[in-house]
């Protein structure tokens, strides 16, 4: 296809150049004989474009989850229970019995008594007596006269201004992810049939012949898979605005009215009553009470109970307890958690990519060859030139691919 387009293009170019050269070199006139010329006609061209579409398709997914089930089981065991049996027999016992007796006890004691005695005593003391007298006294009074003055006073105060800066901090944007943990199965021993043969003892290193039969064989159970959610950190750098307050001191002149006081003295004479204290001696008789100690005897008899032991013989029943063992069977219910894998079916929407060819129509103008007398010639410097034809390569439709 490319070769055909190149040949047609070269042929058209040679024809146009030959006609142009003949028009410039010779001044011959062109007759009205029929010639070939190109006519432009519109052609509708259809191209195809590949379009990729995304659509969601529902898909059934089956997963297996571990579920714990509680099962009721019974455990039977034999219990030995001790049953007591009591028998009695008589025995002779010598006991001592307390006997109470009342005895009078002498609890007499001496008591000291205070006996009051009253006498008179003479007391002398001074009694202050107030005497009033009139005296002239000079009084000096001081008065304070207020005087106001206006003074400029500097006042300083603090002003807070907010300043915003940006700081980078690390923030955890992580989340929980599912992780699976595999627990190996439990290893236990069980009786299993083994065929006869020779095997090497790992302890002694000697070959021993084994008789076929049941032997204790180590067994390993199936591993368990558990799904757990684990937190996975994701640290991200973020820029955060930080506002801090800056304090500034501002000075300001303020007029202040100050009041000062001036002292003025005023003198005057006034009669004043003056009191004077004069002591006078007074004699009085005061009764005085004194106490003397006197010992007196207090007789007191107290009845007291006294115990004495009296020996007696008596018969009493003595219990003897013997035990015997009784065996009983008991049933105890208990719960066991069993792990079980259960299939779970979910419907998941899965994105699917589909390719589609979409037709695109475009209109083009192409040149078509026609054998008729040209309707118009171009005269240049007295020469007659035919109209140039279009590119024949435009006649071939191509596939347009738009991206």
Give a written overview of the molecule.
The structure is a single chain. With 403 residues, the protein is mainly beta. It has a domain at 156-247. The chain is 6% helix and 79% strand. The chain contains 1 helix and 12 strands, in the order αββββββββββββ. It has one helix at 2-25, and strands at 35-106, 109-172, 175-183, 187-194, 197-200, 207-210, 213-220, 224-232, 235-298, 301-372, 378-380, 383-385. Mean pLDDT is 77; it is low at 1-32 and 373-403.
Strand content: over 45%
- Adjacency order of strands in the biggest sheet: 1-10
Overall pLDDT score: 77
Unreliable residue runs: 1-32, 373-403
Question: In sequence order, what are the helices and strands, one letter per element?
Answer: HEEEEEEEEEEEE
Fold blueprint:
Layout: H1 2-25, E1 35-106, E2 109-172, E3 175-183, E4 187-194, E5 197-200, E6 207-210, E7 213-220, E8 224-232, E9 235-298, E10 301-372, E11 378-380, E12 383-385
Antiparallel strand pairs: 1-10, 2-9, 3-8, 4-7, 5-6, 11-12
